[in-house]
Design a protein that fits this description.
heterodimer, A: alpha/beta, Rossmann fold, seven-stranded parallel beta sheet, B: alpha/beta, globular
Chain lengths: 328, 261
């Protein structure tokens, strides 16, 4: 009998738990009510003797059980090793639902695990519910964000990846007496066919955290050049905010992928979102329309971005932004 | 070196029309090669130039119309094209699609060295089929590949994008990579390319040709199903336009609590 909601606990290179793990814990705790108080569980793969560092965070965020695996090879994420071992662990735990954050790592490992378990997987969900048959109803945008589809799985565990920023972490007053269970899985000879030769940390993600920033200044195709984005950065600096980008701008190489807001990027809801030279295709707006206040600057008065904006300025961002910086 | 491409035909999602019932109007919907797959083709052609003796086979699964897309790939210089086409494949989710394509690859190009997929398809945006194919063929995968740095008969070195930075990874072949777009200008078909493509043909294979049981493909072989589909809600607001920088600055600065809630 499959039981419980299992969450993949992604550990970053700098040894912290990815925030999406706690967001999923928040939603899982709500869903568990509809599943006869099903336990909320985590699966985490760690370097030896690291679990103590994370115990408090798992308890505060309401996990009932944390299954962990230790190996000196687990410091660096490698798809082949991680997925092979995770598959065995999930078979042992036998959960009813298995949720994974739709980060790049999550989207890399989830389909590998689900297909090895011969079960279904719904990608990059923006809503999770339990239906009248107590099944996971996972809703996701498709067709560039224009169509929403609710997907069910005939098999177990019912798996979904969930877009970061979709749910809120649980309130910290619900501290749980979490049970930590070390799994012993015969890892055999775990030699990876993948070798990481080099890693360059993006400066963007350190200084420019669009996930947690209250103010985002975002640019699209209309910003045209890297200089255009430097202008956005100046405005963001002045406001104490971060720089975001549309998919087109990222594809044009004007901004890095972790700045990308929208369907294949991040979902954000800052207090203030300033959209500069962004036309407002659904692909983008799906990731930012929940912002408290939206200001749009665009040369085209008919640009769809104005339909979701609170304030609009029809004009060239290259001219407007320097003037704006001066006034602030 | 044998390279396999997995490419997909998708509806042009920039131009979607809706029926009265808020379903997508598929009549007259233009089909295009998935924009990410353009870069799979590009990367494969680039690799062949780099290491000469490469043979490239493109696979697609879909209706007969997808033959046109594969023809275009042949005109760009792809050597062989296989279309997996059968009513039994219809309604496949990512699991069943991957299973079908993997069985096609192991049947027709069993000695492949490298499989290249686009990272996403613009219709479903799942990014699941590539890694699932790699699983079924029991080979390593590298996703979110921005650039191929180096390739030999035994291994490939690529740059991949992660949320916190950029990783340079070496992977032993055979392997599968999923590629993002990059700055390279896509190749255009030449007259010679089109001429030589007209001598080649797209090979069409059915479920029977693959030897795949109808329980493992299509709706029957899919562990997931769509229980409902509906049009995304758009939050419309009354935009207050201004042409005054002072007013704009005011709007930026006033981050008070409730004025816009």
């Amino acid at each position: 009998m499959n039981k419980g909601i299992l969450i993949w606990a992604e550990i970053s290179r700098d040894d912290y738990v990815n925030p999406v793990v706690f967001e999923l814990a928040g939603r899982a705790a709500e869903l568990s009510g509809a599943l006869d108080e099903s336990p909320v569980m985590a699966l985490v793969m760690l370097k030896p003797e690291m679990i103590d560092k994370y115990k408090e965070a798992f308890s505060i965020n309401g996990f009932d059980k944390v299954y962990y695996l230790e190996n000196s090879e687990f410091g660096e994420y490698k798809t082949d090793i991680f997925s092979k071992i995770a598959v065995e662990a999930v078979k042992d735990i036998n959960p009813e639902i298995f949720l994974i954050g739709a980060t790049n790592q999550g989207r890399d490992i989830a389909p590998r695990i689900s297909s090895a378990l011969n079960t279904g997987l719904t990608a990059d969900c923006t809503a999770l519910d339990i239906n009248e048959n107590k099944k996971l109803a996972a809703t996701r945008p498709t067709f560039g964000g224009q169509l929403m589809a609710t997907i069910l799985s005939k098999t177990f565990p019912q798996m979904a990846t969930v877009r970061p920023g979709t749910f809120k972490a649980p309130k910290t007053d619900k501290r749980k007496e979490t049970e930590f269970i070390k799994l012993d899985i015969d890892t055999g000879d775990i030699k990876s066919k993948i070798e990481i030769l080099d890693f360059k940390k993006k400066i963007c993600s350190e200084l420019n955290d669009i996930d947690s920033s209250d103010i985002i200044v975002a640019g699209g195709r209309g910003m045209q050049t890297k200089e255009g984005f430097e202008l956005l950065k100046k405005l963001a600096d002045k406001l104490g905010g971060a720089v975001g980008a549309s998919r087109v701008a990222v594809e044009m190489g004007l901004a890095s992928q972790d700045c990308q807001v929208g369907q294949t990027g991040k979902t954000v809801s800052p207090k203030l979102y300033i959209a500069c030279g962004i036309s407002g295709a659904l692909q983008h707006t799906i990731g930012m329309e929940q912002s408290h206040k939206i200001i749009a600057i665009n040369t085209d008065p008919d640009a769809p971005i104005f339909q979701i904006a609170d304030y609009g300025y029809v004009g060239d961002a290259f001219e407007v932004i320097p003037q704006l910086i001066e006034k602030l | 070196m044998k390279i396999v491409l997995c490419i997909k035909q998708v509806p042009d999602t920039t131009d979607i029309k809706w029926t009265e019932n808020n379903t997508i109007c598929r009549d007259g919907l233009e089909s295009v090669i998935n924009p990410y797959d353009v870069y799979s083709v590009e990367n494969a052609l680039h690799l062949r130039n780099a290491c000469k003796a490469a043979e490239i086979t493109a696979f697609s699964m879909g209706p007969l119309q997808a033959e046109n897309m594969l023809r275009k790939a042949l005109a760009l210089g792809i050597d062989n094209a296989v279309l997996l086409c059968d009513k039994k494949f219809a309604g496949s989710d990512t699991y069943a699609t991957a299973k079908t394509i993997a069985s096609g690859i192991s049947k027709f190009v069993p000695d492949f060295d490298l499989i290249i997929c686009g990272q996403f398809a613009t219709d479903g945006d799942t990014a699941q089929t590539g890694p699932s194919i790699a699983n079924f063929l029991d080979i390593p995968q590298v996703t979110f590949v921005r650039e191929i740095i180096d390739c030999s008969n035994r291994e490939i070195v690529v740059k991949r994008e992660l949320s916190d930075g950029e990783e340079t990874v070496k992977v032993t072949l055979p392997a599968l990579i999923c590629v993002l777009k990059n700055e390279k200008e896509p190749t255009r078909a030449t007259i010679n390319g089109i001429k030589s493509a007209s001598k080649k043909s797209v090979v069409i294979k059915s479920a029977e040709d693959l030897g795949i049981s109808s329980d493992l493909t299509g709706i029957k072989g899919s562990p997931t199903f769509v229980s409902k589909a509906f049009r995304a809600k758009k939050r419309e607001k009354n935009c207050e336009f201004t042409d005054n920088i002072d007013k704009l600055a005011e709007a930026v600065e006033f981050n008070g609590d409730s004025e816009n809630e």
